[in-house]
């Protein structure tokens, strides 16, 4: 019988009380411990290439895609399909199976801890099962049936749903009166007032750490992935403050530094009217990778007839997944190819799949029809429409250029 969320919560309630956070009493001992962390290395170690410089959580067409043992962000607007995408990652890691027609491959099977605060348990389990049904049985670790894949998923995944706000840090502003350092002018009683923020792990954060550090059951896979969805429910304080954001990422790195060094993925929203993750720059600068999910809607879709636009959105729920930041590989800024996906609803379930060449060609034809309809309705006006072969999409940026030309050539009251 596999452990459930209720089992996990019961274990945590029975655990020993959390130790109180205390400051080291001896400053010199603390300095000595810090100094010992500066490690030397030998010339032989420098030349040793027997181990890969970075292990992969996932590879994309054979190349490093997401690094193992690092903190990263997956950002997208609400409703674009972030949780569905994350469910696919969970199913792949838990079973060791490739996803999206084999384009994304996990390094090996591992355990996953998924905390989805905004999801109901029944809905999250449905999304996980939908993702599992997209796996290909028998490739490459030997499970022969969907039932066996379900057993692997149940054995390797723990979930927590709901719960409202589960902050990672308790932040308290404190004021201290200390002896003034010697290099500062000593006025009055020689004291100085210092204001600072003390951030301690919450019971929830400590429960996560204990779960990841606990001895594994015999034969269990190591922890490979932790997902916190969405980031805002685990965050304390001003999302636009870099110091607060840096402390939050540090708390996530503490989870990464547990026994099996799992990857930590934070699901996040994008800024309004943008494809970039919202909030302080430290939320994307400090993590080691950032993926962006965005709907691949064509220009002019909002100008097309409603029936044509509705048909497009129904038939072509296309999503682009791009590496906006990657410290250990190529990104969208230096030629990394995006992962092209589509969402389809079939027989009461939602399937996220790689977009095939045939589906892509069909979508391009629809985009051309949308552009033609927008032109026919007078949404755009130009004396030199872009030339393209029949059935081919308009060149990138063509519609926005035509719209700009229409704005500059619109008649005014004086010359009508």
Could you walk me through the main structural features you see in this protein, from its secondary elements to its overall organization?
It is a single chain. The protein is an alpha/beta fold and 416 residues long. Helices cover 32% and strands 23% of the residues. It has a nine-stranded mixed β-sheet. Strand 1 and strand 2 (63-67) form a beta hairpin. The termini are far apart.
Question: Any descriptors?
Answer:
416 residues; alpha/beta; 9-stranded mixed β-sheet; 3-stranded antiparallel β-sheet; 14 strands; 32% helix; disordered C terminus
Q: What structural class do you assign from the helix and strand content?
A: alpha/beta
What would the principal axes of the Cα set say about the shape? globular
Strand content: 15-25%
Q: Low-confidence segments, ≥5 residues, pLDDT <50?
A: 11-24, 380-396, 398-416
Radius of gyration, in angstroms, nearest whole number: 26 Å
Largest sheet: 9 strands, mixed
- How far the N terminus sits from the C terminus, by CA atoms, comes to 79 Å
What is the helix fraction of residues, given as a range?
25-40%
**How many strand segments?**
14
Q: What topology, given as strand order, has the largest sheet? A: 6-5-9-10-3-11-12-13-14
Average pLDDT works out at: 80
**DSSP summary: helix tally:** 12
The H/E string reads HHHEEEHEEHHEEEHEHEHEHEEEHH
């Amino acid at each position: 019988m596999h452990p459930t969320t209720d089992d996990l919560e019961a274990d945590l309630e029975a655990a020993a009380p959390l130790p109180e956070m205390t400051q080291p009493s001896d400053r010199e001992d603390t300095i000595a411990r810090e100094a010992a962390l500066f490690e030397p290395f030998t010339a032989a170690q420098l030349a040793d290439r027997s181990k890969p410089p970075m292990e992969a959580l996932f590879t994309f067409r054979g190349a490093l895609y997401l690094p193992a043992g690092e903190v990263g962000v997956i950002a997208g607007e609400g409703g674009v399909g972030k949780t569905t995408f994350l469910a696919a990652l969970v199913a792949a890691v838990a079973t060791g199976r490739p996803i999206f027609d084999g384009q994304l491959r996990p390094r090996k099977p591992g355990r996953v801890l998924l905390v989805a605060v905004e999801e109901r348990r029944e809905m999250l389990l449905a999304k996980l099962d939908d993702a599992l049904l997209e796996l290909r049985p028998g490739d490459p670790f030997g499970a022969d049936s969907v039932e066996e894949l379900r057993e692997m998923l149940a054995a390797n995944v723990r979930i927590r749903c709901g719960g409202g706000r589960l902050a990672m840090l308790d932040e308290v502003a404190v004021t201290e009166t200390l002896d003034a350092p010697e290099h500062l002018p000593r006025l009055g009683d020689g004291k100085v007032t210092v204001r600072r923020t003390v951030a301690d792990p919450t019971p929830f954060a400590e429960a996560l750490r204990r779960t990841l550090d606990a001895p594994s059951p015999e034969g269990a896979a190591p922890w490979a992935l932790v997902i916190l969805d969405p980031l805002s429910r685990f965050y304390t304080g001003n999302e636009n403050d870099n110091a607060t954001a840096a402390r939050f990422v540090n708390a996530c790195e503490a989870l990464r530094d547990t026994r099996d060094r799992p990857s930590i993925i934070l699901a996040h929203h994008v800024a309004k009217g943008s494809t970039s993750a919202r909030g302080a720059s430290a939320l994307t600068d400090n993590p080691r990778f950032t993926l962006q999910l965005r709907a691949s809607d064509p220009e002019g879709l909002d100008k097309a007839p409603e029936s044509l636009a509705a048909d497009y959105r129904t038939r072509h729920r296309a999503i682009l997944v791009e590496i906006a930041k990657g410290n250990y590989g190529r990104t969208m800024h230096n030629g990394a190819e995006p992962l092209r996906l589509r969402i389809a609803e079939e027989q009461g379930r939602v399937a996220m799949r790689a977009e095939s060449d045939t589906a892509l060609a069909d979508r391009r034809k629809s985009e051309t029809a949308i552009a033609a309809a927008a032109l026919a309705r007078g949404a755009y006006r130009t004396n030199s429409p872009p030339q393209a072969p029949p059935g081919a999409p308009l060149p990138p940026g063509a519609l926005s250029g035509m719209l700009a030309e229409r704005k500059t050539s619109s008649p005014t009251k004086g010359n009508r």
